[in-house]
Specification:
The complex is a heterodimer of chains A (75) and B (154).
Chain A (H helix, E strand, L loop, with lengths): L4 E5 L6 H11 L6 E6 L4 H12 L2 E8 L2 E7 L2
Parallel strand pairs in A: 1-2
Antiparallel strand pairs in A: 2-4, 3-4
Chain B lengths: L2 E6 L4 H16 L3 E6 L32 H4 L4 H15 L5 H10 L3 E5 H6 L12 E3 L1 H8 L4 E4 L1
Parallel strand pairs in B: 1-2, 1-5, 2-3, 3-4
The chains are: A alpha+beta (75), B alpha/beta (154).
């Protein structure tokens, strides 16, 4: 999947992956896609909750070798 | 805009986390957040948070590497040891430091209100506190909390 920016949130625990996602999205343009890679299993539910509450779109999420990969499209 | 009002009343390492975690996250989700720091919670606004501690004493749910009778937990140095072990574990697990989370709150415009009565009561020196905080009392908190969507006492 194409993306405009990547955030490495590996090794970070709650709530840092969410806070860093928010920060990364801040300087992106509407419609652009942010790729986030995290190792915190709690982030799976939290990313969805973040998207639901902020209006950004969680385009996809997947687990690859113990890592969680998210694609978040900015509102 | 949704609002969240928190009261932070505890100054131990474990109880210092929830207000800063919820505050920073709610701000990221678009909430307007205000945290009122009172009694021991007020110590969380000091510039230096390196002496914030956790005690195994009267804290039977705290996971310990070996079971430890209460009279051992009372010994000098046990609190420091428990704190060191907890901080070490937090670092290994990628949990943010209190200072880091507090900075993230301030960057996200979470408003910190310090209880003036507590400052007077414990004779705190305001120069020991971080910049960018306001001082107020119960009415100040209630003005914001009365309109809030989430209100928690921590």
């Amino acid at each position: 999947m194409n993306f405009d920016k990547e955030l490495d949130a590996r090794g970070l625990n709650c709530p840092l992956p969410i806070l860093k996602t928010k920060k990364s999205l801040a300087d992106m343009a509407p419609g652009q896609v942010l790729k986030v890679v995290a190792t915190d299993s709690g982030s799976v539910k939290d990313m969805q909750a973040f998207a639901n509450q902020t209006g950004n779109t969680l385009v996809s999420q997947a687990e690859e070798k113990g890592e969680f990969v998210f694609f978040m499209q900015k509102k | 805009m949704k609002k969240m009002a928190l009261i932070a009343t505890k100054g131990t390492l474990d109880m210092a986390y929830p207000p800063f975690i919820l505050g920073s996250t709610a701000a990221a989700l678009g909430y307007e957040v205000q945290i009122f720091f009172t009694f021991y919670g007020l110590t969380l606004l000091r510039k230096d948070l390196s002496d914030v501690k956790i005690s195994p004493l009267a804290n039977p749910a705290m996971p310990m590497p070996v079971p430890m009778p209460v009279f051992v937990q009372m010994l000098p140095g046990m609190e420091a040891m428990a704190t060191m072990m907890m901080k070490d574990k937090m670092k290994k697990k990628g949990v943010a430091s209190l200072t880091e989370l507090r900075d993230l709150c301030q960057e996200a415009d979470v408003k910190f209100v310090a209880c003036q009565m507590t400052v007077d009561l414990f004779e705190f020196d305001k120069s020991d506190f971080i910049a960018g905080i306001e001082y107020g009392g119960a009415a100040t908190f209630l003005e914001f909390a009365g309109d809030s969507d989430i209100c928690l006492f921590i």
